[in-house]
Amino acid sequence: MSDLRDLYQEVILDHTKRPRNFGTLADASHTAEGHNPLCGDNITLYLTVEGNVVTDVAFQGTGCAILTASASLMTEALRGKTVEEADALMQQMLTLLTGDPAVAAEAVPELGKLAVFSGVREYPLRVKCATLAWHTLQAALAEKAEKATTE
Fold it and tell me: pTM score, two decimals?
């Protein structure tokens, strides 16, 4: 097995077994729900945005290992980012997971730990699991009332 694949499995398993920032935020300024109708994954994302900066973030929900790890890693990456930086990170992740492979490969060095999701591209059904948290982030930042989906 390649080193990247080993790292992918290790990081995914760690964040699945011990998700970071799992829970709710009583003082959240932005909240959104997400649902993957294909597999039943559900997530609620809570953001506290002060000024233009994400000062706190949490999530809760039920779903597969890929969703849980994606949401956990996302929450770690978002804290301290401006809304614009959070949006740019979301776009990079969606490109990594669903975009042109050549363009996606260029984004990998900038993504840090999030680059472990590059392996998900090989499993099209799992891509929706990995992107659900990011689509939910997009809905939260836009303050959309309807559930975010992967469709």
Answer: 0.91
